């Protein structure tokens, strides 16, 4: 990928996951100032040492006041935020509808949805003001084709998608609405859709497995970098399936 993100500040929430590390690495290599955010202090510090232009922040993203304080710190340290890549999540499943426990629901609701609500609210004005403001989340195919065993996960992912598309509507109205010239749109919120993500560690642990339909974290990282170069009106409020080779539905 060739996009130069020098001068841009991007917050990666959930930065110590395999996907988070891949995104942090790619954004760093593109020249962005990266705020690597997670609750795991040692892992965050490893990222800040391993890559250029990366500053680590430890934050409980389920705590709105902590997120507001984080936003202030990032602005003071790195400048106004141009991008929020939300990779906080996790998976829980059960046996049928009766097997969807309250504990799993609370975990998923907090980790997937509450963290997204908090970070997007705290950084909304930054993203709306930036000439290339971008909010991106990763959702799952199961959000639109749920199973009984994965009911809680699919329901929360669907809610996260709805929240993100609502942010997109907010950007659209702030930047002129449907009647304005397309060039007025400069911020975008969008959803990447995958079956599941895979990385080299997973392949090494199960060398006999093929992981059919899975998306490598490097593909996600490349797609994240690319959205900063695509026109906002082309991607705002859109759901983009990620395949092994490209961002489906986006202009080539």
UniProtKB/TrEMBL annotation:
Keywords in alphabetical order: Oxidoreductase
Keyword Protease: no
Regions that span the bilayer: none
Family: Belongs to the short-chain dehydrogenases/reductases (SDR) family.
Protein name: NAD(P)-dependent dehydrogenase (Short-subunit alcohol dehydrogenase family)
UniProt source species: Arthrobacter ginsengisoli
